[in-house]
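Practice problem: predict the structure.
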Amino acid sequence: MKILVCIKQVPDDDIAVVPDESGTCWRAAEGADWRINRYDEHALEEALRIREAMPGTRIDTVSAGPPRVRAALRRALEMGADEGYHIRLDDDRNPMPSEISALLAAWAGGRGYDLILAGSLSEDDMHGQTGPMLAAHLDWPWATSAIRLDVGWEAQAGMEGPSIGVEREMEGGTREVLAIRLPALVAVQSGINRPRYPALSHVLRARSQGLTEIPADTLPAPQIRERSLRVSAPPPASCLFLEGTMEEKAGELLRILHDRSLL
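Answer:
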């Protein structure tokens, strides 16, 4: 089996995401540390588990972005991926899902992948659209919010050709089990597994292993189908300190709750 894992580099949790100078998209605050999107780490871990169950499986990783995303691809190699591919963008903006999915499809289509795995969403944008859009570009079946994968479901599904079983989480904790014919794309939830810590042998290999770079302008230019018009920061939080005796504070609190229709 040949698996592609799509990963995104996101700002670390402790770094604020703020509107840029134009006010139309976000950027990480100065001094941001970057890492792999945690949902994508779970997707990579699931690919590694499939390879353990199916020796001979190949795992490629791909990320689209500026040169800094190479660190995320290097981390994926440390975790056990076989190859890393960097679709290089020459600016540090945050592209919309339609653009990223089109670039990924233009590169991945025809490369013979049996399964594409991705996180259900990214921790910064939280669109949850890139995976399904990529599948639509490739005309592949897809599933989201996966919490369990089982390969080799031909007998259970009654399908001709290879298929995969997907258990997905729905609203209210409802579970749905699907059989999907390969090739397919699956976006996974965080509860599907626990990502492993990189083995020393993989870390040493990743230090010397090269990454393949694909300039974005060598791929067909994606059509612009959506555009961010405005990004705004949340209003600053405020608090009110009550003063006086306990009785006065209690009375003031009751008044505030009543005025805000909370009582």
